[in-house]
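pasting for the record
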Amino acid sequence: MEILKEVGGGTWFTLVERSNTASLLNERQIREAQELQRRQRAHINSERGRIAKEASQIDQEVSQLRQQVLQEYSKLDPNNLPPDVPTREQTLSNLEAYAQKRRAAIKPEKPFSQFEGAKPAPDLATAEYIVLGSIVAYEADLFSSGTGLRLFNIGGLGEFRRDKVTINLRIVSASSGIVLSTKTITQDIVSQRQQGSILSYVAVDSILEFESGYAFNEPKTFALNIAFRQALSHLISDMTSEGYW
């Protein structure tokens, strides 16, 4: 991925995650579930708030009507009411029936729908091409050699070893599955060791021996990095010359 980001200063290619898609989809599901719960809570609070508001308005209206009724009947003689005027108790009973009818007319809480007002999650970015690669061979100790020399108890030793790693890189069309370009690269991995020693008598019964050396092992990741970069460079050149981008 770092190689593709470096090509063209990071402007040539857009990389998408595919090696750990399960975790990516799991995170999206968690986000969608959290958003669904948030919308559900907001819906319930909104509906309950609407019902409480309408019920409060009805109670206020009925309370005002009750006060008006009481005021009007306070001016009348309860034992000498006009023929078309019901008793105060009957009027208050009618008013309570009216209030119950108004409360029953309030629309019940609307069921929550997970699809109503839902904002679709942004689509995952899709890739036009898939870059696939693998290590197809690792040959250890393909070539080794050594040289040693000792003179007058002074000697030296040198060893050389070469391994080879072979990688294959290919670009596949995501829409058709056709392998558009492929490249196989072999890279050497070198190991060296140098050693020297001195052996001398410092007394009749005493011997001095001194050894020193070093070893150099080329990092395998370094060789793999070079191989993948070379293969990718060839693939980009081939895809460009063939007009794919």
